[in-house]
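Work Package 3 (structural annotation) set out to generate three-dimensional models for the target panel prioritized at the project kickoff. During this period the team completed the workflow that converts sequence records into discrete structure tokens, so that structures can be stored uniformly alongside our sequence database. As a representative example, we reproduce one entry of 373 residues exactly as it appears in the project archive.
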Amino acid sequence: MSRLPFLIGCLLLLQSCGATGDTVASDNIDQDQQHEQQKDKASWQEEYASAKILAFSGDDAQAEQKFTRALAAIESQKGKELTAADIKARLAKLYLKQGHVKTAIPLLESALGVLKASKVESKEYSELLVLLDDNAELLLYETDSKDANYADRLKLVLDLQESSHTGVHNKTFFVLVKLINYYLGKRDLVEANKYIDEALKLAGKKDVKGLTGKMNMLLNIHFALSDLGYKEDADRVYERTVAIWRKYEPDRADAMLYHSLSHIYREKKQYARADEYARKSLKEARRLNDTNLEVSMLAAEAVSMDRQGKFKEADKLYAEALAAQRKNPGNLSQDLVKRLEQYARFLKKNGQAKRAAGLDAEARGYRAKYIKF
């Protein structure tokens, strides 16, 4: 009877020791798991950082492997979506550089999806936003009108540009024109008009760059619509184009418009109308007393005549352009030298070496006098 309390005490002590052992073992497991998680985190971050350096140095193969491993480690983790999108954009850039467009496109679409679903501060993820624009340029370069998914690729380019750090820019207009031409070729006026409206809106922005080039593209769209029989839409594009041009270049717009129309009609082999607008453009430039504009138009007409094999007409126009340029030779006579050399090249090409020699000698004289250029 006296030994019973002693046995009970021993039993309780053993249970206590067992419980303590279990606790220690559990703590050790937790610590091991935390250690492994920290190790995994350090591992993918090291892969990611190393891959960026390798990509920058041009070791694409090694960079691809490391980016792929880093992506596999975090792609399914909550809170890592934007980092995963960044890696996908970097992988896509590597693939596009190698011409592997089909591999790159799903990565770009996934990265864009994450970006649109997240509220991203441009400063926080500036590298990702720059990557989108880089990928847009590469994808555009790798896209050909013969591609089966040509329009879809162009739309993805637009999406990448609009989501990037720069947003819509000059190349966006170029992509819009490609889409317009694609849908006009399909005679899908509904789709074409969607992108025509976007192009007109972009061209009408206050900070528009390359205005003349954009206006010429829009004029070509006007003619394409007209040729297809869409008169109402053609007129709308023409009126909006002229309005934009006159808004931003009120003095020179009509002269530039007539010059562009002259060029387009000449390309269409409608020479009478081309000559009509060439005369109008030149008259407008002279009315403005804008020597540089007058010279540019004379020289452009000369080049056009030369391409048509009309030597006498081209010769006369080059001579007129040179005479006009002499009135305004430019800083250190640089503009005059360029015009002399242009005329000389034309003459030499057409077997007039002696006449060309005099112009070349005059140009060399100016160059010797003004050594700076």
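The two ends are 120 Å apart (CA to CA).
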